[in-house]
Structures are given as C-alpha cells and as structure tokens.
C-alpha cells in the first residue's frame, strides 16, 4: 500500500532531524498541540508503510553519504581516546641569558627549566588529529582544544547499552500511553 501525501511529507520531514513531533506538525498543519503531535508522530512511525519508507530512505542516504554507524563509532572512539599528552609534552630546556647558558655556580651544571612543547600537527597520526577541534593563538600562547571527550564516552556507552535512563510512571492511563509511545520511539531508534 502506498503512502498518503501527508504520510510521505511526515516521513520526509522526520528524516531531516528525526523529530517526529516537529515532522507531524509540518505534515498535519491543523495539529497545534505538541502532545498530540508527539503521540500521533510516534504512532505514524510504527505504521508499516511509513517505517519501510523511512528505513529505505535512511539506507539510501547511508549509501550516498558513506556515513555508517561504524564510521560514527570510530570517530567517537578517536575523540574518547585522545588526551593532552598526544599533542604536547613537558621537556627540559637550558636557561639562556645574553646568549650564554646559565650554570649553577656550585655544580657547574647548566640550569634548566620545564616547558611545554607542542608536537607539530604534521607529525601527529590522523587518528589524533581527528580529535582536535581548534588550535588557537591566545595571549598566553598556543591552545589546542579537543572535542568533548566525556560526551564521546557517554555516546559510546549509550551505544553499548551501559547507561539506562529511568522513567517514572504514575497510575494514570494517559501516562501509560506516553510511556508506550516513549518505548516505541526507543525501539525505533535502535534499528
């Protein structure tokens, strides 16, 4: 059975940002309440024709863009595994004043100080460069910013099912319907 024009519009809008509430309100403009749009949007996603259409379009987009779950997970892994020592190291440098090494009068050894040296980006492996969000020159020197490591770890943990969100349920029938919709959305998102 083919999709109705509104079902197709809903599915196309849903594919933009995977927001069923927003997509439903665009496709069915007479719907003004978010609660109604959320429930109906969730219900539409369980419609076999709509679900099949969305799945086909997602697979086509995956093929076209070559962005697959494995690639996303690999990028998150790169971010999650990066740390400061990948980009810099603490080294000892001799103290030089007026073009000469400063020595300790008691020992005669050259005095040294510790400083941070950045590893040139061309020497970094691609895996480490992928974690860099920005390199800036500040009034204090050069700053290397990486993408949010904790967020990457959280997303990887969620993918692995390590974190379970708890949902409180009251005895009201309306709340049960909302819970059923939420569970269905979660199931749909794991495909």
Automatic annotation (TrEMBL):
Presence of the UniProt keyword Nucleus in the record: no
UniProt KW Secreted keyword: no
Protein name: Terminase small subunit
InterPro entries on file: SPP1-like_terminase, Terminase_Gp1_N_sf, Terminase_ssu
Record-level GO BP terms: chromosome organization
Keywords from the named record: Viral genome packaging, Viral release from host cell
